[in-house]
Amino acid sequence: MAGRVEKNYPLHQLTTWKIGGPAEAVYWPQTKEDLATVWQRAQKADVPVWLIGQGSNLLVPDSGLPGVTLVTTSLRAIEWGNYTVQVEAGYPLARLAQEAGERGFSGLAFARGIPGSVGGAVMMNAGAHGGAMAPHIAAVTALWPDGTVKKVGKAELEFAYRSCSLRGHAWVLEVELMFAPGDRETILQEMKENLTKRALNQPLEKPSAGSVFQNPPGDSAGRLIEAAGWKGRGVGGAQVSTKHSNFIVNTGNAKAIDVLTLIEKIQKSVELEFGVILQTEVAYLNDTQYTRSDARIKGEQSLENN
């Protein structure tokens, strides 16, 4: 099959957190069909399969991952229509937002600074600056656990805050998005302002996975974490950012266990002080998740959400 294959590949090279042990095997499929074929063959051979895109919003265990890790970054076919686009899962979301804006297509300005893939954006209903993916999704082509590839319309999907009903049940291969007509210069200016805000408010100078926790209804996770006294504190090489308390940064030698321990400490502290249980946005790929008898797809298409 076409595409790059690596054995014992260091997964920290594929994640924005720069954390993760070796993958038993990594494969970069060149087509949707190649990806589906590998999944089908792996299922028959009882081999675990994991799916990642740009590697943001993702924590990989220090022990690495068994089986095959599929990386979608080569799946970048794109076709623009009349205020629509059909695009494969591995296409960079920020690049798509910029290109939509250049065409005067309104709707993705919020996504200009999100360093993730289109597939992950759909799976997580990515959002920022008051915008989100769900309103712009017309249809999704996905790979299902039985190995079939099926296109579903938006009416067959359910979206919520940082959530899509496909998560854990299918892998996004391609998505059709729809836009509204807009003024090109206005859209480009909005994206420029969003990027400026991002640079001012987020710790872009250090490896992170974006916002770690979902914002609870009517409140801000960052505010709660800072009020609980966690700003700047850390465990091992993982530290709560001094710039944005809902970011955990890798100070240079962080391990997955450092991040997990810090997350647990923050959750317990915030619950004790404010009675709020913070839910994580980041996906943790734990090799104990995979069981052959479980029909749910365990890999995560993930990206940074803010």
UniProtKB/TrEMBL annotation:
Reactions accelerated catalytically: UDP-N-acetyl-alpha-D-muramate + NADP(+) = UDP-N-acetyl-3-O-(1-carboxyvinyl)-alpha-D-glucosamine + NADPH + H(+)
Recorded metabolic or biological pathway in which this protein acts: Cell wall biogenesis; peptidoglycan biosynthesis
Domain FAD-binding PCMH-type stretches: 19-182
Gene Ontology MF: a single term: FAD binding
Location(s), subcellular: Cytoplasm
PROSITE patterns attached to this UniProt entry: FAD_PCMH
Pfam families in alphabetical order: FAD_binding_4 (PF01565), MurB_C (PF02873)
Active site: R162, S211, E281
E.C. code: 1.3.1.98
Function text: Cell wall formation.
Name of the protein: UDP-N-acetylenolpyruvoylglucosamine reductase
Native species: Desulfosporosinus fructosivorans
Lineage, uppermost ranks: Bacteria, Bacillati, Bacillota, Clostridia, Eubacteriales
